[in-house]
Amino acid sequence: MNPDTAASPDHRPRVLVTRRIHEAGLQQLGEHTRLEVWDGAMPPSREELLRRAEGCEGLVTLLSDRVDGELLDRAGPQLKVVCNYAVGFNNIDVQAAAQRDVAVGNTPDVLTDATADLAVALLLAAARRLPEAIDQVRQGRWKTWEPLGLLGVDLVGKTLGIVGMGRIGLATAQRLHAGWGMRVLYTARDPKPDADSRLDARHVDLPTLLASSDFVSIHCPLTEQTAGLIDAEALARMPQHAVLVNTARGEVVDQDALAAALEKRQIFAAGLDVTTPEPLPPEHPLVGLDNCVIAPHIGSASQDSRRRMSEIAAQNVLAGLRGEPLPHPVSTGEAG
Ligand code: GLV
Ligand code: GLV
Q1: Which of 10, 105, 163, 254 has the fewest Cβ atoms within 10 Å of its own Cβ atom?
Q2: What average pLDDT does range 150-170 have in this prediction?
Q3: CA atoms of 239 and 11, how far apart (whole Å)
């Protein structure tokens, strides 16, 4: 490096990325900014996050970081843009950001297929009791071919209920409709003509969906309206052979009610990629249940998705720093 440049102060905008994300986006950011990446295996503590945000013009945050008025104020008035490395952004106080003229972006679309794939994987795993079966083999408990052992439920021709027909809900429905001939019901703020015409899907209210679906898959964002949406009353509407899948946010489901329903075999099984908190403590009743399959929030965890998420995060932040509209601003009306 030229010693003159090395000696001169670096006036490029400061950007903090709160965990090490895929290198592709970091490279783009590093070319134009003074980049700081939190390299811990765990997220920064609140104190650490507040301290490191000070003086930044851009932040790339994760769903484990709370982005609120306090953080935005600690960052300072020069802060222009926050991009969440996720499609969901319930960890961000969007109103507080708007009041401070801070643009907020997310990384949608590029994780739609990966998340829909995982929803189907969890649905299959829960329906066919796969983790339970695999455990038997691993622990040497499998003795012989069982005529009546580990019986699951079938998928072909069944009814799928999608709670929240956004992009991920639609992609999940497409897979199960095309692959298993499932009939599709869905809830959404408004009917989705695209889903209706392509999948012959039907827009219904939640009680109808719960009572009529063999499989229910949750894809709505977490909002005040959807927190605790699937409670004891909702679970009681589901048929006894039903399987519940959640790849959205843990808070949408009342976990105590779900544990009770699974324990009583009021529904057949659940497949969860999200819980509250994450991780659940090992002694939480859901963790020990044979008919509850829990994955560690890996919906978008494919190599391509995570690379493309990092590229989108970089594009969002660089646009925000230039004062341009973000290519992927958060949209609060999306998956309803
Ligand atoms: C992950 O949960 C995301 O919102 O991208
Ligand atoms: C969420 O934004 C989705 O696309 O389903």
Answers
A1: 10
A2: 98
A3: 62
